[in-house]
Amino acid sequence: MEKIGACRLVSFCYNRGMVSWDIVLGLMVMVFALPFIFLSSKITSTRRRAQEEHNEVRQLRSLQAELEEHVRRDQSLFLEALGVPFLLIRPSGRVVMANSKAPELLGIQSLAQVNLLKFLPDSELRRFLQQACGAGEQLRAMVPVQRDGEQRMYRAKATPLATREGHIGIVFLDMTEEHRTQVIRRDFVANASHELRTPLTLILGYLETLLDDPEADGDAALRQRSLSIMKRHADRMARLVADMLMLSRVETPDSGYLKQEDFDLCQLAEDVRLRLEPMASSQHATVDVEIAPAPFPLHGDSFYWSQVLFNLLENALKNNPAPGLQVKLQAGIGPNGAAHIEVVDNGVGIAPEALPFIFNRFYRADKTGRVKGTGLGLAIVKHAVEAHGGSIQVESTPGKHTRFIITLPPEPCS
After folding, report:
1. C or N: which end of the chain has fewer Cβ atoms within 10 Å?
2. CB 373, CB 236: distance < 8 Å
3. In this structure, is residue 413 part of a structural domain?
4. CATH code assigned at 201
5. Does this model's pTM top 0.70?
6. How many CB atoms lie within 10 A of CB 359?
7. How far, in Å, are 117, 261, 308, 322, 327 from residue 289 at the CA level?
8. pLDDT of residue 271
9. Of 140, 139, 164, 138, which Cα lies nearest the Cα of 154?
């Protein structure tokens, strides 16, 4: 209506000669163009505000994504910093979160959306997880886990969390070495008690005979025989106690028992050979020393190195009493500067099934009881070598040869 009125006003003014045609045309343009200009301005303003709001939303979303990524990264760093396997699971057994140690423990490449109660085979680990999912309270247990042919012991702790889904956090602490130490200590005490009980029982028995039998005082032969047996078993007990003390010391090299000194392996080896010469001669065996260069300098505790060489050479002689045995003590420097010490004999050898246990305390490859000793000699050898930063290996072919190989790292440059 306004446009029609404006048009009539313009037409009236023009017909009366009140305005010119140019003015009329300008008025007509203004009348029709102004609404479009106003509408266009509104549209442009609305688009601008919409674009600004869109940019703000996009920035907020980007900020939210960065914040979520930051939280995930912090969670991952925290879980990795634990240094032990960690699982966060639902009561159904489905994994919600885990660190990189957990797949290694479970033997699974990826734990994403895995239901452990359905995926894991029947085992102590699966049974513990089942108990943890239904316990509703904190649960602790020692869990054996078989991995790569080796059984490892883990102390597992499952804690229900106060979340809407009822998540359960589980931490696994590797206690394998501590468990092995406990087993070794228990076996050591049991074996030591057994080894000491036998000679002690014999000594006490002969003492009772001498004390309670009136005729023993007048029987010189009986007294001499009894005293001789008691002395032999007392010597055995003394050597066993000495070996146990020596083993205890070399197992803890930080205790200060190991001296640090320079010595010549050639002179040390010759002294050991001379100590064993009567035993070798009685068995019609030969013990040769081949060391180059001479002198052969080593750094460490010369007393314990003499025990290493003595035990290895004596072990070869005791296990091969038949005449004709040849034992060689060899030493040299490898291309990388490492020292190699070997004790080789051409005796009866060691059965393959016995090789993994040859350095265990009180282990005897000979089950006949013919070979006498405390059963600690090779254990002392192994720990003494390792206390000096070296390693020892054994290889044997029954009926042909046995070779003990000691490797020492190169001396650091001063």
Report:
1. C
2. no
3. no
4. 1.10.287.130
5. no
6. 18
7. 62, 23, 15, 21, 9
8. 94
9. 140
